[in-house]
What we know:
The protein is an alpha+beta fold. About 40% of the residues lie in helices and about 10% in strands.
Amino acid sequence: AVVSTQSTGNEEPYGHLNPKWTKWLHKMCCPCCFGRSCLIPNQGYMSEAGASLVDDKFGLNVVPKTKVVGLASATFNYTAIDKAKAKSVKFATERFPDTLGKNMKAGLPPKIGSFQMFVTGYKDADFWVRRFQEDPLPPAVQKRFQLLFERLVCLDYIIRNTDRGNDNWLIRFDKEKSENPEECISVAAIDNGLAFPFKHPDEWRAYPYYWAWLPYASVPFSEETRDYLLPKLRDRDMVQEVVDELHILFKHDKGFDKNLFERQASVLRGQILNLCQALEDGRSPLQLVQMPLLRIERRSDGQSSKKSAFIQRFQDKYPFFSSC
Length: 324
């Protein structure tokens, strides 16, 4: 049996089948406090799968495997019409199994959504971080944890995660295995549905990375992280391959917009360029998030060669609140 979590597209926070009508009220009546104007609405399930794709391509190994699939379940929120159809078909196929039962497909229609492997033995990072401050980890385990933390930072920064608190990334720690750091501690980056913005936040809220206020964020990136990631991030062909695979993934969404995707890609390229610079300069995660924001946009003047196909633009507008 496979244990997983499922997030369906039309039941996103502002999707038309989301059972919480208060979400619609929030969006309509108080947009400055709810919703994210920098994100494409109802694409959270694609963002979840996209984060897993980026994690795989760069070999970060902190996101539980996530794919986009079609599943049906009575626990999902269906319209009254879909429920009535499913009930009628079930009755007909059971009543006439030799005729209608062979030609009609019973059951509720499948819903497209993200399908993420469920991880066990983990607790919120906030829980363990507090414990580690009271009871410090052994040096070898601390080094391993710092490395995993840096990989989480790199993932969040590349995809520009707008919802990374210390309650939605997880830590598994087994003190009895402290002699083997790789088995003793591990990190899981879940809840990646509010990433891949088509612009940097520039209205009310900044949506900061809350890990930036942890003591681990003040430690410069390790040599291991620099040596492991820099060759991949510097490889233009590899970065373009990631963008191309994200395009293939995202275009399966019914609301896919090619122009908006290109803007998402421009933010992602800018984040990768900043991350490269931070790793080369030996900066810390905290210094990384303080770097000027930029976008790497594809030139559209028709006069570009392969080397000058993109243009760099710095962010010139910032949100009203910078700490939330």
